[in-house]
Amino acid sequence: MKHQPPPPPLPLTQPPSLSGGGVGGVSGSSSGSSSIVANAISSLNGNNSATSSSSCIQPANNNNNNHNNNISSSRGSSFEAGKCRPPLYPKPKTPSFDKDRDYIGFATLPEQVHRKSVKRGFEFTLMVVGESGLGKSTLINSLFLGDLYKNRQMPNVEERIEKTTRVEKKTMDIEERGVRLRLTVVDTPGFGDAINCEDSWRVCTSYIDEQFRQYFTDESGLNRRNIQDNRVHCCLYFVPPWGHSLRQMDLDLIRRLHRKVNIVLVIGKADCLNKQEVRKLKERILQDLEDNHIQLYQFPECDSDEDDDFKQQDRELKASIPFAVVGSNTILEVAGKKVRGRQYPWGVVNVEDPEHSDFIKLRTFLISTHMQDLKDTTQDVHYENFRAQCISQISQHALRERGKLKRDSISSTNGFDAAISETDRLLLQKDEEIRRMQDMLTQMQEKLKQTHLMEMKKNDSVIDV
Ligand code: GDP
Asked: Which of 138, 328, 349 is the best mutation target for the ligand 1 pocket, counting ligand atoms within 8 Å of the beta carbon and taking the most?
């Protein structure tokens, strides 16, 4: 049977721009997060031609979390839920049965998936770690054109002596062209601030584990629908520009986190360094990581059928790691153009100029090209790791219980038939449970082994080249 080529997808209706410009952005910005997120989401859905049309930021529903700090509430009336446009989805196609006799209809599957995921919305959690003053908040605000840190209070010197690291979670709902993204930024104020900061890493690791545990519990529960995914999908780790390489404290944290979360290293305040210094610092950092057998987030190989521009962009992104970034919340006018930059007596650092910083590369990577891969790696590698450990612990616990039951049954000897048969029944039940868990464990270990082998092969081929 000859198949007709699938009909072209219906174009998305272009909604009119919201008045006021720069929704969700700092004052003076006329474009930004809307286009960033549109590009990001459209690239998640395989659409590379997204253009920003409208966006609105809605209050996040954070009722169940006291740490959540909903920034949208401080954004004024233009962000009120009622004022946002309703989601726009491409309408499903109705095949014309008379004309297209050979048309089966499965060519619309991508559209069906697209519609469903757009309806469901997307979630992404980003953790930022690094000592105070490295420009973390400024960078996050620059990336997402928001003001997540309005009411921040800086600790004084005495407070810092005893200061402990905390976890602060802020959520914002961004909506654009009918696509909703719930972005959660997990900050760790106080990290590395105390005189003795040996344990700063503990807060980060236990937060990440706690989110995995919650997801594992939800997933094993009766109601598996609408599970909220709070797992950390990416950790931006800020390295100061004034060191010669990674410090012991950085290595300690990265070593403890690299198997739990996708770590992306960022050199903060890179405008303190000239080009050569940036290059040298990047080289030393990469060398340190290699010497310490630390594996940060691995960029997936670019498919051979991708177009040349994409391949080039992928190569440039990989070559820029760790990203040397500059952040700014100020919009300046340079040669008649509005740019996000930092004004110095000798000139302007344009945050978005690739000659000045890797800000655009980081933004492209994080939002437009690799957001979905970061989520997939979290699910397929880090969470699977955690799950395998959990199941192994549960099965060990069950084994201990079984031994205890056996001992109890022997000690209550020659007892009553009824009691023995009850014990036997429990033993059989436990045996069955253990067998199931061991099967699952073997399967997961096999899967992990294969992923590991594939990664090794990949690394080998990279070294061969
Ligand atoms: P955080 O404590 O890590 O969140 O740091 P902040 O974002 O609050 O920034 C601390 C100070 O550094 C502020 O005065 C910022 O204006 C400034 N700053 C932020 N980013 C940069 C940057 O890229 N370069 C320079 N030179 N200063 C920056």
From this structure: 138
